[in-house]
Write a structure and sequence with these properties.
rod-shaped; 6 helices
Length: 165
């Protein structure tokens, strides 16, 4: 006796739910054959298998296999979506982290300009200090010696040297 279980479960080539339902039917059939082999001590005959499964392939069982297939496919889709969603969350976090360390161009330009101005100011102050420290005492002492040798006293010293003023 021929049966049409595949065509009852699978409606078209693209019927994924039907294809999974058919695999559930086949899984159940294989489990039944294994169980009967254990119970009988021999493999069931082709006629015994066909009698069992022709009786099993009723509308209620067809609907149950399709319902179970749909649940399996939904669980698979949920797992895939959850996995993809987690990957997207990680990518968003990573992108946000990169952006936090990489400010927009105008902020970098402002920061770089201020840093350059500050470093230029610091260098100028250091050079001025070095110049003052290295040359000012010599010039100051040399000026006093020149004035003393030529008879000119600085104003502050001249006013304190003469009691008449």
């Amino acid at each position: 006796m021929a049966h049409n279980t595949f065509s009852r479960l699978v409606n078209s080539d693209n019927d994924l739910e039907g294809l999974v339902a058919y695999s559930l039917y086949k899984q159940e059939k294989i489990a039944w054959v294994a169980h009967r082999t254990t119970v009988l001590g021999r493999e069931p005959t082709t006629q015994e298998i066909e009698d069992q499964f022709v009786a099993m392939v009723r509308d209620a069982n067809i609907q149950q296999w399709r319902t179970n297939a749909l649940q399996i496919l939904n669980q698979f889709a949920d797992n895939m979506l959850a996995s993809e969603l987690e990957k997207e969350r990680e990518a968003i976090k990573e992108n946000a982290l990169i952006k936090s360390f990489n400010p927009p161009w105008y902020k970098r330009l402002l920061g770089d300009t201020l840093a350059n101005l500050a470093s230029g100011f610091v260098v100028t102050v250091l050079i001025a200090l070095l110049w003052v420290v290295s040359s000012a005492p010599q010039n100051f002492i040399a000026g006093i010696i020149n004035k003393a040798l030529h008879g000119q006293m600085p104003q502050a010293e001249a006013s304190t040297a003469s009691p008449d003023s």
